[in-house]
Amino acid sequence: MKFLLVFDFDHTIVDENSDTWIVKCAPEKKLPNGLRNSYRPGHWTEYMGRVFVYLGDSGVKEDDMERTMTTIPFTAGMVDLLCFIGENKELFDCIIVSDSNTVFIDWILKAADFHKVFDEVFTNPAAFSSTGYLTVQNFHAHHCPKCPKNLCKREVLKEFLNKQLERGVSYTRIVYIGDGGNDLCPVMFLKKDDVAMPRQGYTLEKKIAQLAQDLSPVECSVLVWSSATDIMSYLKLLIKE
């Protein structure tokens, strides 16, 4: 009996978008219009690469970035939820699949001492160059027409499950916790015993509802959450079953 918990990061674990939070480091806490308007749909990682160049050019150092990122608030109830999961690791494997980057997620989890809760983090690789500039790369290449070009979360989840099976680990149930449009692809991969937990009022909840209206509902159960306390209540029930 082991459960797999899959978490998105931005607007799920933390109550903000880590990529836009970093703008607080910029001069006057904003980006020039030309840079802001350079984003093209599906190419967020390249856009963030340009943002990091601008921050580097503006003299923003690694320490400044780390200080700023570790002030990002966790979503309501999330600290308690992660402590609860940490205390019950024999029942839960726990991974993050996120369109943020390794540096931001690492800083935030380590500062709050939550890095041990997660078995693996799948996100865009980032690192500081020899000149002190933060650089970010696409997580992988894939052929899914529904997802941004740098990351298909369904592919990540499938590969993880296959690797676990090779190690002899299979899960009684997968619980997927997220909020965004790019969480729909992995949710549509879940089976009838699994559970999707979309955040109330966010894109994922709306897209799942739209599928049901179009009479092509997702196969898994759907439980909406507004605070991480709702997620914890569900996990406590799951343990009792």
From TrEMBL:
<feature type="active site" description="Proton donor">
    <location>
        <position position="10"/>
    </location>
</feature>
<feature type="binding site">
    <location>
        <position position="179"/>
    </location>
    <ligand>
        <name>Mg(2+)</name>
    </ligand>
</feature>
<dbReference type="Pfam" id="PF06888">
    <property type="entry name" value="Put_Phosphatase"/>
</dbReference>
<dbReference type="GO" id="GO:0046872">
    <property type="term" value="F:metal ion binding"/>
</dbReference>
<feature type="binding site">
    <location>
        <position position="99"/>
    </location>
    <ligand>
        <name>substrate</name>
    </ligand>
</feature>
<dbReference type="InterPro" id="IPR006384">
    <property type="entry name" value="HAD_hydro_PyrdxlP_Pase-like"/>
</dbReference>
<dbReference type="InterPro" id="IPR023214">
    <property type="entry name" value="HAD_sf"/>
</dbReference>
<dbReference type="GO" id="GO:0016791">
    <property type="term" value="F:phosphatase activity"/>
</dbReference>
<dbReference type="InterPro" id="IPR016965">
    <property type="entry name" value="Pase_PHOSPHO-typ"/>
</dbReference>
<feature type="active site" description="Nucleophile">
    <location>
        <position position="8"/>
    </location>
</feature>
<keyword id="KW-0460">Magnesium</keyword>
<keyword id="KW-0479">Metal-binding</keyword>
<keyword id="KW-0378">Hydrolase</keyword>
<dbReference type="InterPro" id="IPR036412">
    <property type="entry name" value="HAD-like_sf"/>
</dbReference>
<protein>
    <submittedName>
        <fullName>PHOP2 phosphatase</fullName>
    </submittedName>
</protein>
<feature type="binding site">
    <location>
        <position position="19"/>
    </location>
    <ligand>
        <name>substrate</name>
    </ligand>
</feature>
<feature type="binding site">
    <location>
        <position position="10"/>
    </location>
    <ligand>
        <name>Mg(2+)</name>
    </ligand>
</feature>
<comment type="similarity">
    <text>Belongs to the HAD-like hydrolase superfamily. PHOSPHO family.</text>
</comment>
<feature type="binding site">
    <location>
        <position position="8"/>
    </location>
    <ligand>
        <name>Mg(2+)</name>
    </ligand>
</feature>
